[in-house]
């Protein structure tokens, strides 16, 4: 359920700040005096006829649109099980009730050109009648509990508490986003300063006199009179009014209108700026969402790549481990074989040694066997049974034939 209050600038999240005071009431003495002066008036019925809400395709200033079928379905709820109140500024917490809804029906508005929700309200209080008759109390706003609210862009059901990414009043691909209300329950009708439905106002007043004839009411100089009485009073008053006073009054009213027009223009400019800011923020949000989506895709791709690399690394590590086991087994077998060849005893727990340690042991043992083989080869080449020839004695050096020696020398040469 969403509580909607159709006056300009209303935000659901700021609902608590709309507890505003009612219009200033006349003093009790003045009210009593007026009541005494117009006791005959109170005996008759005073009815305000109100165009309360204009239906689709008309949209309010809060960018909501009320479906005609939803308004028709709400008709009985305005008077049953109790007549809904008329109050000020949607202050349904501790405000003052100034009237009750007596009748609800569908009509057609010439101003909006659409179907509209028509309400008729009674107001027994003199001050309220006076302000409605004078036009001070004119513009109205309905307060409802909406049960079926949909986004006009995506159709998301919003009354269930779920929100979509679209913002009311923002344009998407050439279409403005609205909240379309299909079903609601009436709560109250408020007199407000600026309604979000600019055509929501008192259309006319019915005053039923004792004869049963309905007569429009009007106000003049703070007194409640019928139209017939006012016409007579106006003729009498015109003769008394001074032209200068009227001219001064017109000047004051002109300045007031100019001030109001300037305020209205400033508010419209502020609204336009806020709408542009909302559009800009929405576009930035969309860009951030797209960037977030891209980053998530990149992260997912990176995670998949990391997982793949992890699997490859684990497979490679398993293969390396297997190869190291095979290499160690081969080294153990070789070292065992070499020790047997060298006649050395068998060593235990060789499998617990590292590959580097096994290789060092094999290298040392191969060097030892090579050295041993080298020494064995040299010993077998020399014959221990053969002795060196004895040298010629030096004393025989001079006992030789010269010619024979020469021949020996020549031969040797």
Describe the structure.
With 413 residues, the protein is α+β, with helices and mostly antiparallel strands. It has a domain at 2-240. The protein is 43% helix and 21% strand. It has eight helices and 14 strands. A hairpin with a 5-residue loop joins strand 11 and strand 12. The longest helix is centred in the C-terminal third of the chain and has 99 residues, at 243-341. 18% of the residues are buried.
Please count the helical segments: 8
Large-scale geometry:
rod-shaped
- Largest pleated sheet: 10 strands, mixed
Q: Which structural class is indicated by helix and strand composition? A: alpha+beta
Uncertain runs are 19-43, 210-241, 380-413
Number of strand segments: 14
What is the C-alpha radius of gyration, as a whole number of Å? 56 Å
How much strand?
Answer: 15-25%
Gap from first CA to last CA: 137 Å
Please bin the fraction of helical residues: 40-55%
* Overall mean confidence score, pLDDT: 78
Task: Please trace the helix and strand order, writing H or E for each element.
Answer: EHHEEHEEEHEEEEEEEEHHHH
List the defining traits of the structure above.
disordered C terminus; 8 helices; alpha+beta; 413 residues; two-stranded antiparallel sheet; 14 strands; 43% helix; ten-stranded mixed sheet
Task: Describe the protein's topology.
Elements: E1 2-5, H1 28-37, H2 39-42, E2 45-54, E3 64-66, H3 68-74, E4 85-88, E5 99-108, E6 115-122, H4 126-134, E7 140-151, E8 171-172, E9 175-176, E10 179-191, E11 201-208, E12 214-215, E13 217-220, E14 223-226, H5 227-238, H6 243-341, H7 355-381, H8 402-412
Parallel strand pairs: 3-10, 4-10
Antiparallel strand pairs: 1-7, 2-6, 2-11, 4-5, 5-6, 7-10, 8-9, 11-12, 13-14
Helix pairs in contact: 6-7
